[in-house]
Specification:
Length: about 180
């Protein structure tokens, strides 16, 4: 099998501030026709920021789609043309009031590849200097919290942290710490 789908037609259905949605007609590798519903997203960034005591800085914020407060690593969406590494450092400073050093890329995450184009780029770092004030967007409300890395891993394994990017960031950072790489 060749594992491909050829786009025949794209029908835009929603053009929002953050996402754009369309329904595409596609030809499958066996010649059959099908439809694909797609949400285009500009992408995002996230950082696992570690203190010298191996605590991670988390944010708690209300997430409207789930109607509840989630515990997450600091993250944000990319602005048009923004460099992902610079966006991550911006988000870290805005949401945690910290700066990092010795950033290590943790790779990319495709959170929902069945229908969304979003790619989240992940990093880990050690925090340098103290924690300054937060610089949140006018429509952004969150609390920060420090949790020891070992406890965060336990929380992932106990299904206490449902956010995928946060789970991945925690587990990859724990691997780096265990192997003396950060």
């Amino acid at each position: 099998m060749k594992l491909y789908e050829k786009t025949i037609n794209v029908q835009p259905i929603y053009d929002g501030r953050i996402i754009h949605a369309h329904v595409d007609d596609v030809e499958l590798e066996n010649g059959s026709l099908s439809k694909r519903e797609v949400v285009d997203h500009p992408g995002g960034v996230s950082v696992a920021a570690l203190t010298e005591d191996n605590e991670l800085i988390f944010v708690r914020q209300f997430r409207y789609p789930y109607k509840k407060v989630l515990l997450e690593l600091p993250a944000g969406k990319l602005e048009p043309g923004e460099d992902p590494f610079e966006a991550m450092k911006r988000e870290q400073l805005e949401e945690t009031g910290t700066r990092g050093e010795n950033y290590i890329s943790l790779g990319e995450v495709y959170p929902t590849p069945g229908y969304c184009s979003e790619i989240i780029r992940l990093w880990a770092c050690r925090i340098v200097g103290g924690q300054q004030g937060l610089h949140l967007d006018e429509d952004e409300f969150l609390d920060t919290e420090r949790i020891p890395l070992d406890r965060a891993v336990e929380m992932v394994c106990a299904n206490e942290i449902p956010d995928a990017k946060t789970q991945i960031g925690i587990l990859k950072t724990a691997f780096l710490v265990k192997n003396g790489l950060i």
